[in-house]
Amino acid sequence: MSAPLGGDRLALDVTAAAGCELEVTTAAATIALRGPTTAPASYDVRLTLGENSSLNWLPQPLISTRGSTLHQTCTVELASTSRLLLREEQLLGRTAEPPGHLSTRLTVRRDGQLLLDQHTIYGEPAPAWDGPAILGAHRAAGQLLAVDPRLNPHHQPLLLEDDPTQGHAVLTPLANGPALLITAIAPTPARLRHLLNAGLAHIQTATT
User: Fold this and answer.
1) How many CA atoms lie within 13 A of 146 on its CB side?
2) Is-contact 145 158, C-beta < 8 A?
3) pLDDT tens, position by position, 39-69
């Protein structure tokens, strides 16, 4: 969707009731635009999963365009027996375009206990976001989170690929699992999706 525009306040609340199995995606990328005002936009997503439910949350990428400012949050509440597959992808600018200012926060709780709380900020005036310790020359970033009681709790961290020109990806178990997180950066959205899918293939073999 060509939104949110500057000043927009968007919110989405999705509940997978007990025993339900849902897969949610989008028809196209979400494009953060400056719009008629320089005021920041917000996009807040809340996902709630009941007992023995399953949700695959797989939207298309979020594109941060020149002059836009977007604060995005995703809050997930899981029951102890629910299963989640969540993908987030951010593209910083369109072709040959610098990005806007993008702040994203992902907070996940399982059975009331904090599982993941991750906050990233890209684009000016954030310091060093394009430095070698963060993105470097890459302009696509993303993650894929799997939470599933069937996951092997003893899975070790795994470096999926480490070609500086083609991106990096790492698969990491979370301390309060059963959960595995893939974090990746890449030069293009196609390459980013390839890295996340490679990680997903490892996750699919990690069930007990």
Assistant:
1) 23
2) no
3) 899 999 999 999 999 999 999 999 999 999 9
In terms of DSSP bridges, do strands 83-92 and 69-78 run parallel, antiparallel, or are they unpaired? Answer: unpaired
Do residues 41 and 7 touch, judged by C-beta distance below 8 A? Answer: yes
Residue 139: strand, helix, or coil: coil
| Diameter over CA atoms, the chain | 52
Distance between CA 94 and CA 64 in Å, rounded? Answer: 8
SS3 state at 162: strand
- Assigned token pair, 70: 């977007």
Q: What CA–CA distance (Å, rounded) separates 171 from 140?
A: 17
pLDDT tens digits along 101-123: 999 999 999 999 999 999 999 99
CA 43 to chain CA centroid, nearest Å:
13
Give the 3-state secondary structure of residue 97. Answer: coil
Mention every residue, 6+ apart, whose C-beta is less than 8 A from residue 198: 160, 161, 169
DSSP state of 199: H
| Nearest residue to 111 (alpha-carbon basis) of 24, 48, 155, 23 | 48
Give the contacts of 24 (CB within 8 A, at least 6 positions apart).
14, 55, 56, 57, 58, 59
Domain boundaries, the chain: 9-203
> pTM value?
0.93
